[in-house]
Amino acid sequence: MNKKHKSFKLILICLVSLSVSFASDESEMSLFEKLIGVLVSGALIFSLIKGYLTVNKIWKRRKNEEVANSISIVAAMLGFAVGFPFLLNSLLITNDYFSAAKSVVALILATVFTLIGTGYFVDKNRGAGLFTLIGRALKLEGKESGELITDMLRPKGANKIIEILKKLAAIDDDIAQEEIDLINQFSEKWGIDLPEIKPGKPEEVTNLVELK
Predict the structure, then answer these.
(1) What is the pLDDT of residues 7-43, one digit of tens each?
(2) 94, 114, 145 — which closes off a domain?
(3) Does a structural domain hold residue 150?
(4) Bridge-partner residues for 200, per DSSP?
(5) What residues contact 106, with CB distance under 8 A and at least 6 apart?
(6) Considering 14, 44, 60, which residue would you say is the last residue of a domain?
(7) Which residues contact 153 (CB under 8 A, 6 or more apart)?
(8) Taking a C-beta distance cutoff of 8 angstroms, is the pair 80, 107 a contact?
(9) Is 32 found in the same domain as 81?
């Protein structure tokens, strides 16, 4: 643990030294430009610290399947689509090495979260190929991609509403198929699992007093 901390501190010291030497070489820079340079250097250091803390928190739990499933593999892989163009632009066009370093940090984070999100470190996935794991993760994400929107659109009393509809359908001691279709339509829209409702005489008879 001490070796890790020493290595991390050494990286920070090197970055600070690099930024100071870079600023000192530009003797003709104005005070404002030097200030911006210091802020950029600080932002890079903070990006490194943020990246380390983000990975450190989840790295201990990388073998947990629930943790792996909680990471969006699409979002993690989009990090490559965002990071590479900025890295190439910083290195080949603008020669902005601070931005390039920040892009490298982002790409490292994208790599780590992609590996964890695929379940690569989960014990039961040992022996499975990386592309197989990516395919599984994408399939799972496809099933869960609408969860947030569904929860946002679902009324607070959705379960209660479904229960009221079921009782209304059974109030005349006969459940029609049209009523079942309507109930199923709402339950599917709100993501509520319901036991199968059969047309005809209901299992439980409902009256107006109970419904109230």
Answers:
(1) 555 555 555 554 555 444 444 567 777 787 788 778 8
(2) 145
(3) no
(4) 175
(5) 51, 79, 82, 83, 86
(6) 60
(7) 190
(8) yes
(9) no
Whether residues 86 and 126 share a domain: the answer is yes
Q: Which residue shows structure tokens 């982002």?
A: 106
Domain range holding 206? 155-211
Residue 124 tokens, joined: 């039961």
**What are 153's strand-pairing partners?**
none
Copy the structure tokens of residue 86.
Answer: 């900025």
Give the whole-angstrom CA distance, residue 155 versus residue 37.
51
Mean pLDDT by 10 residues, the chain (212 residues): 53 52 52 78 84 88 89 89 90 87 90 92 88 88 65 63 72 75 75 72 61 52
